[in-house]
């Protein structure tokens, strides 16, 4: 797993990158939790999501947002971090121009950034939004949400209460042209304490089903 340094809007960004064997393999980027609350690319959930994609033949990247680890710059309350994510996607796509499909996965703060990136990049075909915080961050930009994906959160999440996540899910499910899958994990908190393996298991099952075409309705087409 090579350590990489690439150019971001505020200076260099530090990442970990695993290329796939196939030139046209899909790309996945994984986004970490809030930088001000200890979030880094080495977060255990981010780390395991990274390897979930690697094990399925994706070209995969995780990286530190600005101001974290060896990444330059300072925390920018989401705007700059979205620019970092776009720069990360640009970088990996420049190395893998034959890749035709991209996925984004984000945890907590990273889920908010990932969903914003989804709106800006039509090549993103699928997403994982792990413990999103619609009670803290504005998700009104998802109008409409352009891709199908999984929203997974904990029943006992006090940081992002299930009732708030449910409002977001219900709004997205009402949109035509996409399929939003929701999983509420019984007994899980925002950090998935003692349930990380179960979380990754649910995510892996979803990804395997998507890759096999089991969750796609042939009548549904991605909105452009």
Short recap of the structure:
The chain is built from 5 helices and 8 strands.
CATH class: Alpha Beta
Number of domains: 1
**Which sequence of strands runs across the widest sheet?**
1-2-4-3-5-6-7-8
How does the helix and strand content classify structurally? alpha/beta
Assigned CATH architecture: 3-Layer(aba) Sandwich
Largest β sheet strand count, sense and barrel closure: 8 strands, mixed
Please bin the fraction of helical residues.
25-40%
CATH-assigned fold name: Rossmann fold
- The counted number of beta strands is 8
Rg over alpha carbons: 16 Å
Question: What do these coordinates show?
Answer:
The protein has 224 residues and is of the alpha/beta class. Helices cover 30% and strands 22% of the residues. The chain has helices spanning 44-54, 79-95, 109-120, 162-173, 196-211; strands at 3-8, 11-18, 27-31, 59-63, 102-107, 124-130, 148-154, 180-185. The chain has an eight-stranded mixed sheet, sandwiched between helices. β1 (3-8) and β2 (11-18) form a beta hairpin. The chain is globular. Residues 218-224 have low confidence and may be disordered. Keywords: Hydrolase. Residues 17-138 form the Xaa-Pro dipeptidyl-peptidase-like domain. It comes from Fulvimarina endophytica. One of its GO terms (molecular function) is hydrolase activity.
Describe this protein with a few key phrases.
224 residues, alpha/beta, Rossmann fold, 8-stranded mixed beta sheet, 5 helices, 30% helix, disordered C terminus
Give the topology.
Blueprint lengths: L2 E6 L2 E8 L8 E5 L12 H11 L4 E5 L15 H17 L6 E6 L1 H12 L3 E7 L17 E7 L7 H12 L6 E6 L10 H16 L13
Parallel strand pairs: 3-4, 3-5, 5-6, 6-7, 7-8
Antiparallel strand pairs: 1-2, 2-4
Helix pairs in contact: 1-5, 2-3
């Amino acid at each position: 797993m090579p350590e990489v340094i690439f150019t971001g809007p505020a200076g260099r960004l530090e990442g970990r990158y695993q290329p796939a064997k196939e030139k046209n393999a899909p790309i996945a980027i994984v986004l970490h939790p809030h930088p001000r609350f200890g979030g880094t690319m080495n977060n255990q959930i981010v780390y395991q999501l990274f390897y979930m994609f690697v094990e399925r033949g994706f070209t995969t990247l995780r990286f530190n947002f600005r101001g974290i680890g060896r990444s330059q710059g300072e925390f920018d309350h989401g705007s700059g971090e979205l620019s970092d994510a776009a720069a990360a996607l640009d970088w990996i796509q420049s190395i893998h121009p034959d890749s035709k499909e991209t996925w984004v996965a984000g945890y907590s703060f990273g889920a908010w950034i990932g969903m914003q990136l989804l709106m800006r990049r039509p090549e993103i075909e699928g997403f994982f939004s792990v413990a999103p915080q619609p009670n803290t961050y504005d998700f009104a930009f998802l109008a409409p949400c352009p891709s199908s994906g999984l929203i997974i959160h904990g029943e006992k999440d006090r940081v992002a209460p299930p009732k708030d996540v449910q409002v977001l899910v219900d709004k997205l499910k009402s949109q035509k042209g996409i399929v939003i899958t929701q999983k509420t994990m019984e007994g899980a908190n925002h950090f998935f304490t003692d349930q990380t393996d179960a979380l990754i298991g649910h995510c892996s099952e979803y990804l395997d089903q998507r890759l096999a075409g089991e969750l796609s309705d042939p009548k549904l087409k991605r909105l452009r």
